């Protein structure tokens, strides 16, 4: 198994209703139960780290971190899962397994929203990223609608992407940091095919060798395989992503733009130079993102099954 990442204490400010150790009295084994499920999955599938990072991000950016992305559609309601950006989100069965184990240990106590947050944190540490503490105490939301899904596009420029992040209370530094999760990510060819020479309109900002590699991988337009976003240390959570985009080897348009836009380029350079600074910044940004529009107190509910409202 990969080594756990260095321990980091996040310095991000969070809502007073969320606190580290929220379940210490009501479900003392909550964090270890989630961690065990993640460790078991990671042993056979290290790509669970980018899957959970994406799920957490897609959840928090729509109605806040309330586990609304987990809800299955019914005849009466088309849920968030149906939206095009969410159709390639995966890892739901890991959340189901953790929830099932938690319901045995302490019924109706630990929210699905907190399970996503804890599982993501654990998967990042297993991949060599920061091992940070996360405050818990989120409750699960009561709404999940396909029409509410409005996520930043991988084809955005830096100013366009920043508007999406700013709307959620996140800064440019948070955005550049969180996109560093692409160090373990991958994307289907449909998200970047238009940048390749095989499209007939090659993006001059892409390294020609990478263009050749990706054009060969992606093949004809009716095939849609996946490519790693960090072509160097693809499954290790490190700062290589920033080195790659500085070499014009960003796969997605937004990745490459980070090193070309004068507002974000110095941050990219700083994170490329100093992996520890990136990891501390990532721990802070994840805690901050995990606090977006959280449902707390007596609002929402604690779902018994993460895929359905009680």
Automatic annotation (TrEMBL):
<feature type="binding site">
    <location>
        <position position="80"/>
    </location>
    <ligand>
        <name>Ca(2+) 1</name>
    </ligand>
</feature>
<dbReference type="GO" id="GO:0046872">
    <property type="term" value="F:metal ion binding"/>
</dbReference>
<dbReference type="InterPro" id="IPR019793">
    <property type="entry name" value="Peroxidases_heam-ligand_BS"/>
</dbReference>
<feature type="binding site">
    <location>
        <position position="59"/>
    </location>
    <ligand>
        <name>Ca(2+) 1</name>
    </ligand>
</feature>
<dbReference type="GO" id="GO:0140825">
    <property type="term" value="F:lactoperoxidase activity"/>
</dbReference>
<feature type="binding site" description="axial binding residue">
    <location>
        <position position="182"/>
    </location>
    <ligand>
        <name>heme b</name>
    </ligand>
</feature>
<dbReference type="InterPro" id="IPR019794">
    <property type="entry name" value="Peroxidases_AS"/>
</dbReference>
<keyword id="KW-0106">Calcium</keyword>
<keyword id="KW-0560">Oxidoreductase</keyword>
<dbReference type="Pfam" id="PF00141">
    <property type="entry name" value="peroxidase"/>
</dbReference>
<dbReference type="InterPro" id="IPR033905">
    <property type="entry name" value="Secretory_peroxidase"/>
</dbReference>
<feature type="active site" description="Proton acceptor">
    <location>
        <position position="58"/>
    </location>
</feature>
<dbReference type="GO" id="GO:0042744">
    <property type="term" value="P:hydrogen peroxide catabolic process"/>
</dbReference>
<keyword id="KW-0732">Signal</keyword>
<feature type="disulfide bond">
    <location>
        <begin position="60"/>
        <end position="65"/>
    </location>
</feature>
<feature type="binding site">
    <location>
        <position position="66"/>
    </location>
    <ligand>
        <name>Ca(2+) 1</name>
    </ligand>
</feature>
<comment type="similarity">
    <text>Belongs to the peroxidase family. Classical plant (class III) peroxidase subfamily.</text>
</comment>
<feature type="binding site">
    <location>
        <position position="64"/>
    </location>
    <ligand>
        <name>Ca(2+) 1</name>
    </ligand>
</feature>
<dbReference type="InterPro" id="IPR000823">
    <property type="entry name" value="Peroxidase_pln"/>
</dbReference>
<feature type="domain" description="Plant heme peroxidase family profile">
    <location>
        <begin position="17"/>
        <end position="310"/>
    </location>
</feature>
<keyword id="KW-0376">Hydrogen peroxide</keyword>
<feature type="binding site">
    <location>
        <position position="238"/>
    </location>
    <ligand>
        <name>Ca(2+) 2</name>
    </ligand>
</feature>
<keyword id="KW-0964">Secreted</keyword>
<dbReference type="InterPro" id="IPR002016">
    <property type="entry name" value="Haem_peroxidase"/>
</dbReference>
<feature type="site" description="Transition state stabilizer">
    <location>
        <position position="54"/>
    </location>
</feature>
<keyword id="KW-0575">Peroxidase</keyword>
<dbReference type="GO" id="GO:0020037">
    <property type="term" value="F:heme binding"/>
</dbReference>
<feature type="disulfide bond">
    <location>
        <begin position="189"/>
        <end position="218"/>
    </location>
</feature>
<comment type="similarity">
    <text>Belongs to the peroxidase family. Ascorbate peroxidase subfamily.</text>
</comment>
<keyword id="KW-0479">Metal-binding</keyword>
<protein>
    <recommendedName>
        <fullName>Peroxidase</fullName>
        <ecNumber>1.11.1.7</ecNumber>
    </recommendedName>
</protein>
<dbReference type="InterPro" id="IPR010255">
    <property type="entry name" value="Haem_peroxidase_sf"/>
</dbReference>
<feature type="disulfide bond">
    <location>
        <begin position="112"/>
        <end position="306"/>
    </location>
</feature>
<feature type="binding site">
    <location>
        <position position="68"/>
    </location>
    <ligand>
        <name>Ca(2+) 1</name>
    </ligand>
</feature>
<keyword id="KW-0349">Heme</keyword>
<feature type="binding site">
    <location>
        <position position="230"/>
    </location>
    <ligand>
        <name>Ca(2+) 2</name>
    </ligand>
</feature>
<keyword id="KW-0408">Iron</keyword>
<feature type="binding site">
    <location>
        <position position="233"/>
    </location>
    <ligand>
        <name>Ca(2+) 2</name>
    </ligand>
</feature>
<comment type="function">
    <text>Removal of H(2)O(2), oxidation of toxic reductants, biosynthesis and degradation of lignin, suberization, auxin catabolism, response to environmental stresses such as wounding, pathogen attack and oxidative stress. These functions might be dependent on each isozyme/isoform in each plant tissue.</text>
</comment>
<feature type="binding site">
    <location>
        <position position="62"/>
    </location>
    <ligand>
        <name>Ca(2+) 1</name>
    </ligand>
</feature>
<dbReference type="GO" id="GO:0005576">
    <property type="term" value="C:extracellular region"/>
</dbReference>
<keyword id="KW-1015">Disulfide bond</keyword>
């Amino acid at each position: 198994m990969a080594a756990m990442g260095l321990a980091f204490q996040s310095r991000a400010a969070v809502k007073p209703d969320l606190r580290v150790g929220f379940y210490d009295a009501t479900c003392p084994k909550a964090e270890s139960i989630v961690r065990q499920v993640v460790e078991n999955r990671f042993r056979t599938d290290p790509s669970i780290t980018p899957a959970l990072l994406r799920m957490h991000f897609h959840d928090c950016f729509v109605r806040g971190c309330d586990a609304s992305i987990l809800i299955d559609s019914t005849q009466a309601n088309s849920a968030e899962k149906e939206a095009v950006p969410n159709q390639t989100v995966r890892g739901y069965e890991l959340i189901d397994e953790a929830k099932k184990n938690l319901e045995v240990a302490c019924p109706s106590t630990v929210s699905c929203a907190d399970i996503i947050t804890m599982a993501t944190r654990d998967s990042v540490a297993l991949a060599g990223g920061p091992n940070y503490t996360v405050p818990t105490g989120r409750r699960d939301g009561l709404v999940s609608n396909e029409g509410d899904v409005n996520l930043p596009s991988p084809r955005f420029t830096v100013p366009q992407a920043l508007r999406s992040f700013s709307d959620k209370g996140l800064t440019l530094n948070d955005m550049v940091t969180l996109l560093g999760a692409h160090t373990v990510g991958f994307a289907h060819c449909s998200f970047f095919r238009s940048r390749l020479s095989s499209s007939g309109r090659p993006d001059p900002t892409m390294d020609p060798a990478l263009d050749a590699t990706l054009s060969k991988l992606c093949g004809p337009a009716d095939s849609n395989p996946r490519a790693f976003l960090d072509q160097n240390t693809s499954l290790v959570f490190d700062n290589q992503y920033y080195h790659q985009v500085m070499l014009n080897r960003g796969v997605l348009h937004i990745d490459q733009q980070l090193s070309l836009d004068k507002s974000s380029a110095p941050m990219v350079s700083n994170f490329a130079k100093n992996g520890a600074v990136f990891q501390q910044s990532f721990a802070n940004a994840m805690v901050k993102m995990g606090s977006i529009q959280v449902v707390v107190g007596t609002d929402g509910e604690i779902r018994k099954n993460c895929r359905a409202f009680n």
